[in-house]
Amino acid sequence: MIISPRSRYFFPDISKYEPFLNPAEYVSAGIKFAIVRIGTGEKGEDPFFVKNAKKLIDVGITVMGYWWIDPTGDAIEQARTCKQIVVSSGLPIKYIWGDIERWWNDWAWHDLFTHGKVPFDQSKVFRSTFLNNYYFTCMAELANQFMDQVGIYTGQGFITSWCPQMADWLFSYRLWISQYPKEVKKGTFMTWEEFCASWLPTKDPNMKDMSKEFPLQLMGHQFTGDHVRLPGAYKDAQMTSKFATPLDVNVFQKDFCDALLDSGSNPSPLPSPGPGIIDPLFRAIVRTGAANIRNAPIGSAEVLRSELQGTILSIYRISTTGWGKVAPFQDEWVFMADLQKALRSRKGRRSRKELA
Predict the structure, then answer these.
(1) Planar angle of CA 139, 145, 148, nearest 5 degrees
(2) What is the CATH class of 282-355?
(3) Which CATH number fits domain 5-262: 3.30.365.10, 3.30.830.10, 3.20.20.80, 2.40.37.10?
(4) pTM score, two decimals?
């Protein structure tokens, strides 16, 4: 997909590494949104979360937050800690992202490995089945704590190399994907105007093999990898050019961001951005003997009816626990594992275009 600048908003990614943030520079550059690290599973709250988020909010910048999930701790407790920190801050954090990127079990080895000082060692890597279960559990609890207003930050390489099982459920979440199509020399300083003129991505990230059946809900793209120094990350431009930590910069879909502006002060349910309220996300076919349609997205909910194998269903929304809403206004839900996306086949199965 070719990116239109008018359909995207810029987001700088802020954490403790920007302790002298000057958000007035962001406002001057026309930036309306930022993402602030809430904390990590290993170390808890980011020491500059409240300070940086408040600075940004005070100048009118809308703030989302992310939690760096650490698979060495308790998955459910991490999600609850994240909620506790956000609530205690009293700040209007508009959306929460679970940061899924850790695949190693030894930080010392990982630091040496990434600098080419030691060889790869399989014993230093978490098993993919463990990572899948851990991240699924943590994200489900984040969704529970923040009333489904959560998404996933990750990269294609993490899914395909370290946890391919996530492709079974990644479609349930809105996604913020890291992928770096071109890189400026690390530590380069430039103005926002220079940056926008030369370094904006022209395409959405490649998400091949990140989902086995259903379309993914891409909201954001991180397209720099801590390489560029930009005004706003330090007290003034001169200090930024010499001392500031290079930023991660992202683009997010405008429709998604505009929906955040219309939401309440703290996380609350949002309508899915993208298709209109009548238009389905896609259509799918019942692949089991029968699929029960229930009045809530949970296995113990009342069965309203059963749809036989081969029946085509429209999916209007996907819950974070793997259920699809089959009616635009009524509570009618089907378990997505009972379906497969409608595609053309030699047996005469109709394509998505034909079904539209």
Answers:
(1) 65
(2) mainly beta
(3) 3.20.20.80
(4) 0.75
